[in-house]
Design goal:
The chain is of the alpha+beta class. The chain is built from 13 helices and 16 strands. α2 packs across α6 and α8 packs across α9. It starts with 6 loop residues before the first strand and ends in a 14-residue tail after the last strand.
Length: 446
Protein backbone atom coordinates (compact mmCIF):
# COMPACT_ATOMS: atom_id res chain seq x y z
CA UNK A 1 0.00 0.00 0.00
CA UNK A 2 2.80 2.41 0.90
CA UNK A 3 4.32 1.83 -2.55
CA UNK A 4 1.22 3.37 -4.20
CA UNK A 5 1.27 6.57 -2.17
CA UNK A 6 1.22 9.84 -4.07
CA UNK A 7 2.26 13.14 -2.57
CA UNK A 8 0.82 16.25 -4.22
CA UNK A 9 2.24 19.70 -3.52
CA UNK A 10 -0.74 22.00 -2.94
CA UNK A 11 1.07 25.27 -2.33
CA UNK A 12 4.44 26.73 -1.57
CA UNK A 13 4.95 30.05 0.15
CA UNK A 14 7.54 32.12 1.97
CA UNK A 15 7.16 32.71 5.70
CA UNK A 16 8.88 35.83 6.97
CA UNK A 17 9.64 36.67 10.62
CA UNK A 18 6.67 38.25 12.42
CA UNK A 19 8.85 41.25 13.30
CA UNK A 20 11.75 42.69 11.28
CA UNK A 21 15.29 41.89 12.39
CA UNK A 22 16.89 44.93 14.10
CA UNK A 23 19.53 46.74 12.06
CA UNK A 24 22.32 45.84 14.50
CA UNK A 25 21.64 42.11 13.91
CA UNK A 26 21.61 42.22 10.10
CA UNK A 27 24.96 40.42 9.77
CA UNK A 28 25.45 37.11 11.57
CA UNK A 29 28.91 35.54 11.50
CA UNK A 30 29.27 31.81 10.96
CA UNK A 31 31.66 30.13 13.36
CA UNK A 32 34.77 28.39 12.07
CA UNK A 33 33.06 25.07 12.86
CA UNK A 34 30.09 26.09 10.69
CA UNK A 35 32.39 26.98 7.80
CA UNK A 36 34.02 23.55 7.76
CA UNK A 37 30.92 21.32 7.68
CA UNK A 38 29.56 19.84 4.43
CA UNK A 39 26.94 21.70 2.38
CA UNK A 40 23.86 19.59 3.12
CA UNK A 41 20.55 19.96 4.91
CA UNK A 42 19.83 18.42 8.29
CA UNK A 43 16.40 16.76 8.03
CA UNK A 44 13.72 15.53 10.42
CA UNK A 45 10.16 14.25 9.88
CA UNK A 46 7.63 14.12 12.72
CA UNK A 47 4.37 12.17 12.34
CA UNK A 48 1.19 13.16 14.19
CA UNK A 49 -1.99 11.07 14.16
CA UNK A 50 -5.38 12.71 13.76
CA UNK A 51 -7.19 13.33 17.03
CA UNK A 52 -10.73 11.98 16.76
CA UNK A 53 -11.86 13.63 19.99
CA UNK A 54 -10.92 17.06 18.66
CA UNK A 55 -10.99 17.20 14.88
CA UNK A 56 -8.76 19.99 13.64
CA UNK A 57 -9.26 21.11 10.08
CA UNK A 58 -6.27 21.00 7.77
CA UNK A 59 -6.57 24.75 7.20
CA UNK A 60 -6.49 25.42 10.93
CA UNK A 61 -3.43 23.26 11.48
CA UNK A 62 -1.66 24.80 8.53
CA UNK A 63 -2.48 28.32 9.74
CA UNK A 64 -1.21 27.47 13.23
CA UNK A 65 2.04 26.08 11.80
CA UNK A 66 2.66 29.13 9.62
CA UNK A 67 1.80 31.69 12.30
CA UNK A 68 4.01 30.04 14.93
CA UNK A 69 6.81 29.55 12.37
CA UNK A 70 6.73 33.27 11.61
CA UNK A 71 6.95 34.09 15.32
CA UNK A 72 9.73 31.55 15.93
CA UNK A 73 11.77 33.01 13.06
CA UNK A 74 11.85 36.34 14.87
CA UNK A 75 13.82 34.68 17.67
CA UNK A 76 15.89 32.53 15.28
CA UNK A 77 16.40 35.42 12.87
CA UNK A 78 19.50 34.00 11.04
CA UNK A 79 17.30 31.19 9.66
CA UNK A 80 15.34 33.77 7.64
CA UNK A 81 18.51 35.08 5.99
CA UNK A 82 20.98 33.84 3.35
CA UNK A 83 24.62 32.74 3.62
CA UNK A 84 27.22 34.91 1.89
CA UNK A 85 30.66 33.57 0.87
CA UNK A 86 30.64 30.89 3.58
CA UNK A 87 31.48 33.71 6.01
CA UNK A 88 28.28 35.20 7.37
CA UNK A 89 24.50 35.21 7.09
CA UNK A 90 22.84 38.31 5.71
CA UNK A 91 19.81 38.52 8.03
CA UNK A 92 17.55 40.16 5.46
CA UNK A 93 14.27 38.49 6.53
CA UNK A 94 13.87 36.79 3.16
CA UNK A 95 12.18 34.05 5.12
CA UNK A 96 11.72 30.30 5.24
CA UNK A 97 9.91 28.13 2.69
CA UNK A 98 6.63 26.50 3.72
CA UNK A 99 5.23 23.73 1.53
CA UNK A 100 1.79 22.20 1.98
CA UNK A 101 1.16 18.74 0.53
CA UNK A 102 -1.60 16.13 0.37
CA UNK A 103 -0.96 12.40 0.66
CA UNK A 104 -3.53 10.06 -0.90
CA UNK A 105 -3.21 7.43 1.83
CA UNK A 106 -3.87 6.74 5.48
CA UNK A 107 -1.05 7.44 7.89
CA UNK A 108 -1.51 3.94 9.33
CA UNK A 109 -0.76 2.41 5.94
CA UNK A 110 2.52 4.28 5.69
CA UNK A 111 3.56 3.48 9.26
CA UNK A 112 2.81 -0.23 8.80
CA UNK A 113 6.17 -0.60 7.09
CA UNK A 114 7.68 2.83 6.38
CA UNK A 115 9.02 3.22 2.85
CA UNK A 116 12.28 5.13 3.23
CA UNK A 117 12.17 6.46 -0.33
CA UNK A 118 8.70 7.90 0.26
CA UNK A 119 9.94 9.27 3.60
CA UNK A 120 12.33 11.48 1.61
CA UNK A 121 9.36 12.89 -0.35
CA UNK A 122 7.93 14.22 2.91
CA UNK A 123 10.85 16.67 2.99
CA UNK A 124 10.65 20.03 1.19
CA UNK A 125 14.08 19.66 -0.48
CA UNK A 126 16.75 17.01 -1.09
CA UNK A 127 19.16 16.58 1.81
CA UNK A 128 22.23 16.91 -0.44
CA UNK A 129 20.97 20.02 -2.30
CA UNK A 130 23.72 22.65 -2.82
CA UNK A 131 21.16 25.31 -1.88
CA UNK A 132 22.11 24.60 1.74
CA UNK A 133 25.21 26.74 1.16
CA UNK A 134 23.68 29.80 -0.50
CA UNK A 135 19.90 29.48 -0.61
CA UNK A 136 17.12 29.10 1.91
CA UNK A 137 18.35 27.99 5.35
CA UNK A 138 15.04 26.59 6.57
CA UNK A 139 12.36 24.74 4.63
CA UNK A 140 9.26 23.06 6.04
CA UNK A 141 6.74 20.67 4.48
CA UNK A 142 3.39 19.88 6.09
CA UNK A 143 1.98 16.72 4.46
CA UNK A 144 -1.64 15.96 5.32
CA UNK A 145 -2.87 12.36 5.01
CA UNK A 146 -6.45 11.43 4.05
CA UNK A 147 -7.22 10.43 7.64
CA UNK A 148 -6.15 13.79 9.05
CA UNK A 149 -2.74 12.53 10.09
CA UNK A 150 0.15 14.91 9.52
CA UNK A 151 3.86 14.64 8.72
CA UNK A 152 5.99 17.72 9.39
CA UNK A 153 9.24 17.57 7.43
CA UNK A 154 11.94 20.07 8.35
CA UNK A 155 15.22 20.78 6.51
CA UNK A 156 17.74 23.15 8.07
CA UNK A 157 21.09 24.03 6.49
CA UNK A 158 23.96 22.16 8.14
CA UNK A 159 26.03 25.34 7.66
CA UNK A 160 24.21 26.76 10.68
CA UNK A 161 22.77 23.74 12.41
CA UNK A 162 23.86 20.48 13.98
CA UNK A 163 21.32 17.96 15.28
CA UNK A 164 21.00 19.79 18.59
CA UNK A 165 20.26 23.10 16.82
CA UNK A 166 17.63 21.45 14.63
CA UNK A 167 15.84 19.86 17.57
CA UNK A 168 16.07 23.08 19.64
CA UNK A 169 14.43 25.08 16.85
CA UNK A 170 11.61 22.57 16.31
CA UNK A 171 10.95 22.51 20.08
CA UNK A 172 10.78 26.32 20.17
CA UNK A 173 8.53 26.37 17.08
CA UNK A 174 6.16 23.89 18.75
CA UNK A 175 6.27 25.76 22.07
CA UNK A 176 5.44 28.96 20.17
CA UNK A 177 2.37 27.25 18.69
CA UNK A 178 1.32 26.52 22.29
CA UNK A 179 2.03 30.09 23.39
CA UNK A 180 5.16 29.06 25.30
CA UNK A 181 7.88 30.10 22.85
CA UNK A 182 9.48 32.51 25.30
CA UNK A 183 10.60 29.64 27.55
CA UNK A 184 13.72 28.87 25.44
CA UNK A 185 16.32 31.50 24.67
CA UNK A 186 18.61 30.64 21.71
CA UNK A 187 22.29 31.43 22.21
CA UNK A 188 24.21 32.80 19.20
CA UNK A 189 27.68 33.15 20.72
CA UNK A 190 29.55 30.34 18.89
CA UNK A 191 31.31 32.71 16.46
CA UNK A 192 32.69 34.85 19.30
CA UNK A 193 34.51 31.78 20.63
CA UNK A 194 35.41 30.32 17.23
CA UNK A 195 35.60 33.26 14.78
CA UNK A 196 35.25 32.50 11.06
CA UNK A 197 38.36 32.23 8.91
CA UNK A 198 38.83 34.06 5.64
CA UNK A 199 38.93 31.34 3.01
CA UNK A 200 38.60 33.84 0.11
CA UNK A 201 35.05 32.82 -0.71
CA UNK A 202 36.21 29.33 -1.64
CA UNK A 203 35.44 26.06 0.07
CA UNK A 204 38.31 25.64 2.52
CA UNK A 205 40.72 22.81 1.87
CA UNK A 206 40.07 21.52 5.36
CA UNK A 207 36.31 21.20 4.87
CA UNK A 208 34.82 17.73 5.10
CA UNK A 209 33.36 16.51 1.81
CA UNK A 210 30.79 13.73 1.89
CA UNK A 211 31.22 10.87 -0.60
CA UNK A 212 28.03 10.61 -2.67
CA UNK A 213 27.75 7.07 -4.01
CA UNK A 214 25.12 4.52 -4.88
CA UNK A 215 24.00 2.79 -1.71
CA UNK A 216 21.02 1.23 0.05
CA UNK A 217 19.45 2.53 3.25
CA UNK A 218 17.45 0.23 5.53
CA UNK A 219 15.86 0.62 8.95
CA UNK A 220 16.62 -1.66 11.89
CA UNK A 221 14.81 -1.32 15.21
CA UNK A 222 16.15 -2.48 18.57
CA UNK A 223 13.17 -2.55 20.95
CA UNK A 224 13.41 -2.27 24.74
CA UNK A 225 13.73 -5.98 25.65
CA UNK A 226 16.22 -6.70 22.83
CA UNK A 227 18.12 -3.56 23.80
CA UNK A 228 18.55 -4.81 27.36
CA UNK A 229 19.75 -8.18 26.07
CA UNK A 230 22.24 -6.52 23.73
CA UNK A 231 23.62 -4.30 26.49
CA UNK A 232 24.11 -7.40 28.66
CA UNK A 233 25.94 -9.14 25.79
CA UNK A 234 28.45 -6.31 25.23
CA UNK A 235 29.08 -5.61 28.92
CA UNK A 236 32.71 -6.23 29.88
CA UNK A 237 35.23 -5.41 32.56
CA UNK A 238 36.19 -2.22 30.74
CA UNK A 239 32.59 -1.20 29.93
CA UNK A 240 30.37 -2.30 32.78
CA UNK A 241 27.41 -0.13 31.87
CA UNK A 242 27.28 0.34 28.08
CA UNK A 243 24.87 2.97 26.79
CA UNK A 244 22.23 2.16 24.19
CA UNK A 245 24.26 4.06 21.59
CA UNK A 246 27.49 2.22 22.43
CA UNK A 247 25.79 -1.19 22.33
CA UNK A 248 24.04 -0.61 19.00
CA UNK A 249 27.08 1.08 17.45
CA UNK A 250 29.34 -1.82 18.43
CA UNK A 251 26.96 -4.41 16.99
CA UNK A 252 26.26 -2.56 13.72
CA UNK A 253 29.96 -1.81 13.27
CA UNK A 254 30.86 -5.47 13.78
CA UNK A 255 28.20 -6.76 11.36
CA UNK A 256 29.02 -4.09 8.74
CA UNK A 257 32.74 -4.91 8.99
CA UNK A 258 32.03 -8.58 8.39
CA UNK A 259 29.74 -7.81 5.45
CA UNK A 260 32.32 -5.56 3.81
CA UNK A 261 35.08 -8.12 4.20
CA UNK A 262 32.90 -10.90 2.74
CA UNK A 263 31.62 -8.87 -0.21
CA UNK A 264 35.02 -7.45 -1.22
CA UNK A 265 37.28 -10.28 -0.14
CA UNK A 266 39.62 -7.61 1.24
CA UNK A 267 40.56 -6.97 4.87
CA UNK A 268 40.81 -3.24 5.50
CA UNK A 269 41.50 -1.18 8.57
CA UNK A 270 38.01 -0.50 9.95
CA UNK A 271 37.19 2.74 11.71
CA UNK A 272 34.16 4.39 13.30
CA UNK A 273 33.66 8.14 13.52
CA UNK A 274 30.95 9.14 16.00
CA UNK A 275 29.61 12.69 16.31
CA UNK A 276 29.65 14.23 19.80
CA UNK A 277 27.81 17.28 21.13
CA UNK A 278 30.56 19.46 22.65
CA UNK A 279 28.33 22.09 24.31
CA UNK A 280 28.87 20.68 27.80
CA UNK A 281 32.37 19.36 27.13
CA UNK A 282 34.25 22.59 26.39
CA UNK A 283 35.42 25.15 28.95
CA UNK A 284 33.57 27.36 29.52
CA UNK A 285 30.45 25.42 28.57
CA UNK A 286 27.97 26.58 25.96
CA UNK A 287 24.25 26.68 26.81
CA UNK A 288 22.39 23.65 25.53
CA UNK A 289 20.36 26.06 23.36
CA UNK A 290 23.48 27.31 21.54
CA UNK A 291 22.96 27.54 17.78
CA UNK A 292 25.56 26.24 15.34
CA UNK A 293 27.77 23.25 14.67
CA UNK A 294 29.04 22.62 18.18
CA UNK A 295 30.04 19.08 17.45
CA UNK A 296 33.21 17.02 17.39
CA UNK A 297 34.00 13.48 16.31
CA UNK A 298 35.72 10.70 18.17
CA UNK A 299 37.16 7.71 16.38
CA UNK A 300 37.75 4.06 17.18
CA UNK A 301 39.46 1.53 14.99
CA UNK A 302 39.75 -2.20 14.50
CA UNK A 303 43.10 -2.92 12.91
CA UNK A 304 43.64 -5.71 10.39
CA UNK A 305 45.12 -8.70 12.18
CA UNK A 306 44.62 -12.38 12.70
CA UNK A 307 42.48 -11.66 15.77
CA UNK A 308 38.77 -11.43 14.98
CA UNK A 309 37.17 -8.83 17.25
CA UNK A 310 33.63 -9.26 18.53
CA UNK A 311 30.95 -6.67 19.37
CA UNK A 312 31.93 -6.56 23.06
CA UNK A 313 35.54 -5.72 22.20
CA UNK A 314 34.43 -3.07 19.72
CA UNK A 315 32.23 -1.43 22.38
CA UNK A 316 35.30 -1.33 24.61
CA UNK A 317 37.18 0.50 21.84
CA UNK A 318 34.30 2.93 21.39
CA UNK A 319 34.35 3.76 25.10
CA UNK A 320 38.12 4.25 24.99
CA UNK A 321 37.72 6.58 21.98
CA UNK A 322 35.12 8.65 23.84
CA UNK A 323 37.30 8.92 26.96
CA UNK A 324 40.27 10.09 24.88
CA UNK A 325 38.03 12.58 23.05
CA UNK A 326 36.75 14.04 26.34
CA UNK A 327 40.33 14.41 27.59
CA UNK A 328 41.87 15.91 24.44
CA UNK A 329 39.26 17.68 22.34
CA UNK A 330 38.28 20.44 24.79
CA UNK A 331 41.97 21.43 25.05
CA UNK A 332 42.15 21.70 21.26
CA UNK A 333 39.26 24.16 21.29
CA UNK A 334 40.84 26.71 23.61
CA UNK A 335 44.00 28.75 23.57
CA UNK A 336 45.59 31.08 21.05
CA UNK A 337 45.94 28.59 18.18
CA UNK A 338 42.31 27.50 17.99
CA UNK A 339 42.00 28.37 14.27
CA UNK A 340 44.98 26.21 13.27
CA UNK A 341 43.92 23.41 15.63
CA UNK A 342 40.36 23.22 14.27
CA UNK A 343 41.46 23.37 10.63
CA UNK A 344 44.03 20.64 11.24
CA UNK A 345 41.41 18.53 13.01
CA UNK A 346 38.96 18.77 10.10
CA UNK A 347 41.76 18.11 7.64
CA UNK A 348 42.58 14.88 9.49
CA UNK A 349 38.92 13.81 9.26
CA UNK A 350 38.82 14.67 5.55
CA UNK A 351 41.99 12.69 4.90
CA UNK A 352 40.58 9.64 6.68
CA UNK A 353 37.35 9.88 4.68
CA UNK A 354 39.34 10.05 1.44
CA UNK A 355 41.55 7.03 2.07
CA UNK A 356 40.79 3.84 0.14
CA UNK A 357 42.64 1.60 2.59
CA UNK A 358 40.29 2.50 5.46
CA UNK A 359 36.71 1.28 5.77
CA UNK A 360 35.14 4.21 7.61
CA UNK A 361 31.68 4.05 9.20
CA UNK A 362 30.16 7.37 10.27
CA UNK A 363 27.66 7.27 13.15
CA UNK A 364 25.38 10.10 14.28
CA UNK A 365 23.07 9.81 17.27
CA UNK A 366 19.96 11.82 18.04
CA UNK A 367 19.13 9.71 21.08
CA UNK A 368 18.11 11.55 24.27
CA UNK A 369 17.16 14.74 22.40
CA UNK A 370 13.57 14.66 23.69
CA UNK A 371 12.07 14.81 20.21
CA UNK A 372 9.09 12.65 21.14
CA UNK A 373 7.95 15.45 23.47
CA UNK A 374 7.42 17.93 20.60
CA UNK A 375 3.76 19.00 20.72
CA UNK A 376 2.34 21.69 18.40
CA UNK A 377 -1.07 21.52 20.04
CA UNK A 378 -2.40 18.21 18.77
CA UNK A 379 -0.40 15.77 20.88
CA UNK A 380 3.02 14.18 20.73
CA UNK A 381 4.41 12.53 17.59
CA UNK A 382 3.74 8.86 17.01
CA UNK A 383 7.01 8.48 15.07
CA UNK A 384 10.04 10.64 14.32
CA UNK A 385 12.70 9.80 11.78
CA UNK A 386 15.63 11.30 9.89
CA UNK A 387 15.70 10.59 6.13
CA UNK A 388 19.33 10.33 5.06
CA UNK A 389 20.82 11.02 1.67
CA UNK A 390 23.15 8.93 -0.44
CA UNK A 391 26.23 8.69 1.75
CA UNK A 392 27.79 5.23 2.06
CA UNK A 393 28.61 3.68 5.46
CA UNK A 394 26.45 6.21 7.30
CA UNK A 395 24.44 5.13 10.36
CA UNK A 396 21.90 7.33 12.11
CA UNK A 397 20.50 6.41 15.52
CA UNK A 398 17.34 7.86 17.03
CA UNK A 399 15.13 6.98 20.01
CA UNK A 400 12.12 4.73 19.70
CA UNK A 401 8.87 6.27 20.95
CA UNK A 402 9.09 4.32 24.22
CA UNK A 403 12.55 5.78 24.86
CA UNK A 404 14.24 2.50 25.77
CA UNK A 405 15.12 1.29 22.27
CA UNK A 406 16.93 2.56 19.18
CA UNK A 407 15.67 3.14 15.63
CA UNK A 408 18.70 2.82 13.30
CA UNK A 409 19.01 3.85 9.67
CA UNK A 410 21.95 2.11 7.99
CA UNK A 411 23.31 3.11 4.58
CA UNK A 412 25.70 0.65 2.89
CA UNK A 413 26.68 -0.40 -0.61
CA UNK A 414 24.22 -2.81 -2.25
CA UNK A 415 26.70 -5.69 -1.94
CA UNK A 416 27.41 -5.03 1.74
CA UNK A 417 23.74 -4.53 2.64
CA UNK A 418 22.75 -7.86 1.05
CA UNK A 419 25.02 -9.60 3.59
CA UNK A 420 24.50 -7.20 6.51
CA UNK A 421 20.71 -7.51 6.63
CA UNK A 422 20.97 -11.32 6.88
CA UNK A 423 23.58 -11.41 9.65
CA UNK A 424 22.27 -13.72 12.41
CA UNK A 425 24.02 -11.70 15.13
CA UNK A 426 22.26 -8.52 13.98
CA UNK A 427 18.86 -10.19 13.61
CA UNK A 428 19.09 -11.65 17.12
CA UNK A 429 18.60 -8.10 18.43
CA UNK A 430 17.13 -6.00 15.59
CA UNK A 431 13.97 -6.15 13.47
CA UNK A 432 14.13 -5.06 9.84
CA UNK A 433 11.71 -2.16 9.29
CA UNK A 434 8.93 -3.28 11.64
CA UNK A 435 5.53 -1.62 11.95
CA UNK A 436 5.86 1.63 13.89
CA UNK A 437 2.99 0.62 16.17
CA UNK A 438 4.71 -2.52 17.43
CA UNK A 439 2.57 -5.34 18.82
CA UNK A 440 -0.18 -3.01 20.05
CA UNK A 441 -3.40 -2.66 18.09
CA UNK A 442 -3.30 0.46 16.01
CA UNK A 443 -6.00 3.06 16.39
CA UNK A 444 -8.50 3.37 13.56
CA UNK A 445 -8.21 7.15 13.81
CA UNK A 446 -4.85 6.97 12.08
Amino acid sequence: MAQEMKIEIVKKETIKPSAPTPHNLKSFKLSLLDQLVPVVYGPMVLFYPSNVSEVTLTEERSHQLKKSLSEALTRFYPLAGRIKDNLFIECNDEGAVYVEARVNALLSNFLDQPNLEILKLLLPIKVESPEAGTGCLLLVQASFFECGGLAIGVCMSHKLADASTLSTFIKVWAATALGLGHTVVPDFSAATRYPPGDFSAQSPAAAVEMKIVKCVTKRFVFDGPKMRALKAKVTSGSVQRPTRVEAVTGLIWNCARKASKLSSGISKLSMVSQSVNIRKRVVPQFPQTSIGNLVGYYTAMAEVSGIELNSMELVSRLRKGMVEFNENHPKRLQGDNVFEAICEYFKEIGNIMGRDDINLFTFTSLCNFGIYEIDFGWGKPIWVNIPIGVVQNLVLLIDTKEGDGVDALVSLSEEDMALFERDPELLAFASLNPCVFGPVTRRSSL
